[in-house]
Amino acid sequence: MGVLEIAKGMGVTLGKLFQKPVTVSYPEQRATLQPRFRGRHVLTRHPGQRPGELGLEKCIGCSLCAAACPAYAIYVEAAENDPANPTAPGERYAKVYEINMLRCIFCGMCEEACPTGAVVMGNEFEMADYRAGDFVYAKEDMLVGVTGSLPQRREAARSGKPVRLGFQLEGPPRAELEGVKYP
Amino acid sequence: MPDLIAALLISLLKAVLVVLGLLTTFAYMTLIERRLLGRMQIRHGPNRVGPMGLLQPAADAIKSIFKEDLTVTLADKLVYTLAPIVAIGMALTAFGGIPAGPAGSLFGENPWVYNLDAGILALLALTSMGVYGIFLGGWASGSKYPMLGALRSSAQMISYELGMGLSILGLLMLVGTTSFHGIVGWQAQNGVLILFQSLGFALFLISSFAETNRTPFDLPEAEQEIVAGYLTEYSAIKWALFQMAEYVNMITASAVMATLFLGGWKGPQFLNAVIPGVSDWPLVWLIAKIAFFLFLFIWVRATLPRLRYDQLMRFGWKLLLPLALANTVVTAAFLAFRGSGGLWFLGVLSLAGLLALLLMSDRVRVLWNRPTVRRPESEAVRAGGD
Fold first, then answer.
1. What letter does residue B109 receive in the DSSP assignment?
2. Interface contact A14-B304, CB threshold 8 A
């Protein structure tokens, strides 16, 4: 009987009326992400010699990530290491390492191409900003230890509060994200 | 002479109050509807503007008023502008005749704007004028989809008006008057009419859904087929006026159902034993009943998908109309051969009719769905091939 089915449906909607909404009120509540979520890149470092000391950068400036990038979003300029005070192990390091986050499609091919595991897709995704130029992230914006995107850090500096990330992970970050901790 | 002017002023004041009340209800209906729909779909509705989203209607109103009012080049300017005004004007006028309390109960005045002996007839006439708003709007837009939408919604509204009018015919014969006061008074004496006219009530309820263009009968706005129907070329305040008309029609339909079938402004008599005179309080009971029906409108919208056009027409003409006719005939027969028979017998008859409606709504479909001309199998295969 068609009417019975209608009544059944009405019962379902009435029941749902009293159920707690599943919505995550995003800016106020944190979104829960899977650790595999591909967000803003992180440039990782080798472990330091002594605890507390910053290790050498893993990036050796080979530009393989730029070659692998389907969106041509990465620009790398390599330079010779100063043997006395090296930035990265080996001969060269990345003097300039820029990713245009507007061009980036977050496919993760740079991560696959990287021979040293230097560039890794992190979990941060809140990068909305006002000017196109502000979306070009330099090395300082992506090295391990930098929390938050450019606009988030700008807002934090303006208000004097620490950067607040709008997400939390299910479990710890991936092992590839060496040294990355999300609050 | 001063008496006349005073009466006129009071009527005017009441009219303004009713319009204000209706438009405020409309504004908050949109919010309540969106919130309830949200909750029924396990999400919050709009909750950003003001506490709990309570200022959302104000934001919407400001937006609609200041939005650019586009007019299509091919549109018939006068009719194009007039159509939403007709729609909202008729919708607002219709509500004034519904009594909200006993005579003289609203600060010594009558809680209705106008009182006609032909109350329900006038109301049906006014609400059916609303179809002009839709049709003229669609025609004057000078565009294809609005035209199609307007045509099919006119057809829909006219078809369901028949069912609507016929479904209350039995009730009117039983009561013997078309004035709302008479109907409310009869129910106060003999019990609410939904008991004796449950079939009529079901038919009237379904036709009200179709008349107010609500789901599952919101064919005029079927996005998948005709963009937004007659609303396609409308924007800004004109569009808002059409929306207003739809919601005001909904409120009016709720008020009519409350008045005709649920005892109108009178509350249940047995409560008088608890608080003396509670069933005669003005406004309260009518508003509560209207709220119930409005919730029903939203609830159904959250549940049922839209009908196909042929299903809509078939349901209206082949099931609703014959059943309404049968209801009329049975009620007439009951009144003619009643003798000293009690009203309860009519209630039983009506319940049987309701059961027939529930059963037939599914069974008859198969009979009527069969195409009259069957193509031979081979031809059908050829036609269907790629």
1. B
2. no
Nearest CA in chain B to A4: B358
CA-based Rg of chain B, rounded to a whole angstrom?
A: 23
Of A3, A6, A17, the CB nearest to B39: A17
Domain boundaries of chain A, sorted by first residue: 29-169
All residues of chain A having their beta carbon less than 8 Å from the beta carbon of residue B39 are: 16-17, 21
ipTM exceeding the 0.85 mark:
no
| d(CA B300, nearest CA chain A) in Å | 7
CATH topology of domain A29-169: Alpha-Beta Plaits (3.30.70)
Q: How many CB atoms lie within 10 A of CB A58?
A: 22
pLDDT digits (tens, 9 = 90+) for B326-344: 889 988 888 888 766 677 7
Distance CA(B29)–CA(B248), nearest Å, equals: 10
A93-97, B97-101, B180-184: which is most confident: A93-97
Asked if B252 and B294 touch (Cβ cutoff 8 Å), the reply is: no
- Which tokens is B366 given? 């198969």
SS3 A80: strand
Across the interface, do B40 and A17 touch by the CB < 8 Å criterion? Answer: yes
> What residues in A contact B43, CB-CB < 8 Å?
21-23
Alpha carbon dihedral B241, B242, B243, B244, in 10-degree steps, equals 50
> Are A3 and B361 within 8 A, CB to CB?
yes
Contacts 24+ apart (CB under 8 A), A135-138: A135/A100, A135/A101, A135/A102, A136/A98, A136/A99, A136/A100, A136/A101, A137/A40, A137/A41, A137/A98, A137/A99, A137/A100, A137/A101, A138/A96, A138/A97, A138/A98
Alpha helices by DSSP H, listed for B74-222, are 77-95, 119-140, 144-167, 169-175, 180-190, 198-211
Cis peptide bond N-terminal to B84, omega within 30: no
Count other Cβ atoms within 10 Å, centred on residue B277.
9
CB B208 within 8 A of CB B246: no
Sheet strands (E) in chain B: none
Calculate how close chain A gets to B39, using CA atoms only, in Å: 5
Q: Are B265 and B85 in contact (CB under 8 A)?
A: no
Give the pLDDT of residue B212: 84
CB contact under 8 A, B39 and A1: no
CA distance A49 to B134: 79
